[in-house]
Amino acid sequence: MARYHRTDLGRNAPVSTEITGYALSALVYLDLHERARETADFLCRTWDAAAQTMPFELGAPAYGYFFDDGIIVRGLLAAWRALGSAEYLDTAAAIGRHMLRDFDAGADFHPILTLPEKEPLERDALRWSRSSGCYQLKSAMAWHDLAEATGESDFDAAYGRVLEYSLRTWREFLPGHPEPLKVMDRLHAFSYFLEGMLPRAREPRCRTALGEGMARVAALLREIAPQFERSDVYAQLLRVRLYADRAGVAPLDRRAAEHEVERLRTFEAPDGGYRFGRKGGEWLPYANPVSTAFAMQALAMWSGAPASIAELI
Asked: Which residues contact 171 (CB under 8 A, 6 or more apart)?
């Protein structure tokens, strides 16, 4: 899958392993098993077992992303649960060990490594994707899932380590940038933190952070939306509300959820996909599989469809 499609130019960005990982989870969720098998096989072929690395894009400068690797692992585990191929579990576990071994920075985990050297790229505090932060907890869910699949305690301990770090630092993440439009991007990233807590949602600190975090995202989203709004933020917030309600940790704010459903539906494109975003009421010329997958799952859950935490795209 390409990272995104330029609707104005009719051109795709390079193939992204992360976006392909998201798409794999979505294909399994939709029971499109043959497409899922093709996609999982592609990711297994792309994994460099000799070098123990996964490039973040094909045909691009060689970097590896901690966050991307976790998304790929969760996609492969979804395919393993649905299709039963041991190769998918083995590859997911190998990528999970690579994350543990090569991204470990001591206090946290490096966001990006250069390849093939596996040297950490310089961080940028104003760019969330080039910083370590609470958003990485979504990726660390891969370790939680691997611990359940393999029984390896190191994976569970690693998820717990990122959870502890995230619970100490999450209040520093928002707004995090002086420009409101950049804050909208950080709402997308912060929503990953909310998603990443779901396996431990009933623990008191996670319950508190979920409640406060959802309220913070909703307030900033409404404040910034007239200037810039993203479909994935609406979808992510709606999904977390529904998961938290079903888990009995945060009663659903129905009025707020109905607003998010209404806004999210306006992003649907004529082809059935979901547009990425709009600024000042004007559509941005980008479409990507992730915005569509998030919106599809959020609206399905709103309509009553079940979804386990393992199925979270």
From this structure: none
Cα–Cα distances in angstroms (integers) from residue 68 to residues 2, 291, 299, in the given order: 14, 16, 25
State the pLDDT at residue 59. 77
Q: pLDDT value at position 285?
A: 96
Residues of the chain within CATH 1.50.10.10 domain(s) are 1-132
Confidence at residue 58, expressed as pLDDT on a 0 to 100 scale: 87
- Both structure tokens of 130: 């080039």
CA 57, CA 131: separation in Å to the nearest integer? 19
Task: Please check whether the domain covering 1-132 is classified as CATH 1.10.150.240.
Answer: no
Q: How far apart are CA 136 and CA 271, in angstroms?
A: 32
Question: What pLDDT score was predicted for residue 61?
Answer: 64
pTM over 0.90: yes
**Amino acid, single-letter form, for residue 110:** H
For the chain, the helix, strand and coil percentages under 3-state DSSP, each to the nearest 5: 60, 10, 30
Q: If 0-12 CB within 10 Å is exposed, 13-18 middle and 19+ buried, where does residue 158 land?
A: buried
| In the block, residue with structure tokens 């404040």 | 223
Sequence letter at residue 141: M
Amino acid at 73: V
H helices then E strands: how many in the chain? 11, 9
Q: What is the mean pLDDT of each run of 10 residues along the chain (313 residues)?
A: 93 95 98 98 96 88 93 98 98 98 97 96 94 97 98 97 98 96 98 98 97 98 98 98 97 98 97 94 95 97 95 97
Q: Pairing relation of β-strands 228-230 and 119-120?
A: unpaired
